[in-house]
Amino acid sequence: MTDLTRRTILGAGLLAGAGVLSSCGAPPTSECLQGEHQLDSGPAFTFPFIAPERPRQKRQVSLQGLAVSPDGRRIAAQEPWDRKLLGESETAGTTVWDTATGEILARFDDGMYDAVAWHPHDELLATATTSVVHISRPDGEVLWTLSGHRASTRWRSFDIKDLAFHPDGHQLASLSTDGTVRLWSLDGGTCTPSPVLRVRSGRPSSLAYTEDGSRIAVAVDGAGAQLWDPSSGERAETFDDCGREAMGIALDGQGRFVLGIGEEGRLQVVGQDGTCSPGTSTRITVPEFIATAPDGRIAVSGGKSRGLELWDADLTESSFIDLPEFIPDIGAPGELGRTAWGPDGTLYAVARWWGVIAWDGQGWRPFELP
């Protein structure tokens, strides 16, 4: 496959110019393009043009993306583009592992290094880079290329930070720091752009569907939590009692949302009646990644933390799970990113230098590095 983030289609100069103009006016139009398309997602570096730190010899993965297959047998994460750019890796993009053995099953040079989501029923993956989304098979076949989110410029960068499938799998939501949540209808093997949720204040950071899929909850850094109607694209409700610096959000299995507030390291619960609890303090200073287990336990991570906090379903008791400082021949794991639960209750996470890791209740098991 080609690296979508480094190459552009014929006429890219015109597309780039259109992107600059669109950043000053209305957002670009959403499009579903059948198959794999090479689209310009913006420059590699933005102002002040600081090149990335040279990676260590152990290959890293992105802290943003992690998704477990519905049967729990596979897990997907993404290798950032900088290692390939520096000649230390042959691929940049999606990697799939066997959860039982920790061995790599497949690596794709698809240039996807932001968010990732697994379809709840079908053999489909949604993966994203800064402004482009792929709907693909786990074997790497790209079925659809989704465009519409703003591409980065040299003066401002954008990222697709979160992806989520509707519970019935017929819709995909992609959240970008460009201020939009774009919806895509996926039904009967077709793809159709759906309404665009336009967040007019703050910076969207995370999203989650309600259990019945009738609403989408969006955490907005600077504007708190909001509830949107995915059918009309209209905002249905704002949770004024919640903190404004909303970073992470997840459904808790009881019809409520758990909200991570970054301004003071706090977790709040949004009840079914829309009221927001006073909250409880968390040792994760920027609780941007929140994941709920099948039994209701809640994992919280983010903010370059060196571990994660594990809460019971009622957010009354918690324990902190540290990452090892150093293991011979492996080194230090680095900070912890997104977490995800398998259907059997296994907890997975991505660490800066260890890649994908699994928690067995006693210790961490590193997976094979790409």
Notes on the structure:
With 370 residues, the protein is mainly beta. Helix content is 4%, strand content 40%. The protein contains two helices and 29 strands. The strands form seven sheets. It has a five-stranded antiparallel β-sheet with strand order 1-9-8-7-6, with no helix packed on it. A four-stranded antiparallel β-sheet has the order 2-3-4-5, with no helix packed on it. Strands 10-11-12-13 form a four-stranded antiparallel β-sheet, with no helix packed on it. β23 (298-301) and β24 (307-311) form a beta hairpin. 43% of the residues are buried. Mean pLDDT is 85; it is low at 1-24 and 45-58.
Summarize the structure.
The chain has 370 residues and is mostly beta strands.
Helix share, percent: under 10%
Low-confidence stretches: 1-24, 45-58
The assigned structural class equals mainly beta
The major beta sheet can be summarized as:
5 strands, antiparallel
Strand adjacency order, main sheet: 1-9-8-7-6
